[in-house]
Automatic annotation (TrEMBL):
Stored InterPro entries: UPF0344 (IPR010899)
Name of protein: UPF0344 protein KHA99_06915
Cytoplasm as UniProt keyword: no
Transmembrane segments: 6-24, 36-56, 62-81, 93-110
GO cellular component: plasma membrane
Family: Belongs to the UPF0344 family.
Keywords, alphabetical: Cell membrane, Membrane, Transmembrane, Transmembrane helix
Membrane topology: Multi-pass membrane protein
Annotated localization: Cell membrane
Keyword check for Ligase: no
Length: 119
């Protein structure tokens, strides 16, 4: 289940940047299609994340924090894409994205015991 979760968020990250580049190049229809696929991946990410939480026998506060930050990242994906489409300022959301991404990677790969690096 962990590998499915990591694959889903890695694909989501790639599609996020593809959608941004399509928006910036003026291909609105293609960007909308990629954004819809991205939204389906959000559901996969959430479903696999919830599945991982239910696999735990002892859920610590750090797992809850990681889940909340993961949802925050999904919200930031949507905010950045919607503001980029409307050609509005996104710098505050990019700063939040970098902080949240670093935190979720740290929690997922270093701190928490159920990670790919800590089998």
């Amino acid at each position: 289940m962990i590998h499915g979760h990591v694959t889903a968020w890695a694909l989501a990250l790639i599609l996020f940047f593809v959608a941004l580049s399509l928006h910036s190049s003026g291909k609105a229809k293609a960007a909308k299609i990629v954004q819809m696929i991205l939204r389906v991946l959000y559901l996969v990410i959430i479903a696999t994340g919830v599945g991982l939480l239910f696999m735990l026998s002892n859920i610590s506060v750090l797992y809850i924090l990681k889940a909340v930050v993961g949802l925050w990242i999904i919200g930031l994906f949507e905010m950045i894409l919607s503001r980029a489409t409307a050609k509005r300022k996104t710098s505050v959301f990019w700063i939040q994205f970098v902080i949240a991404w670093a935190l979720v990677l740290y929690l997922g790969f270093v701190e928490l015991p159920m990670s790919i690096l800590n089998p």
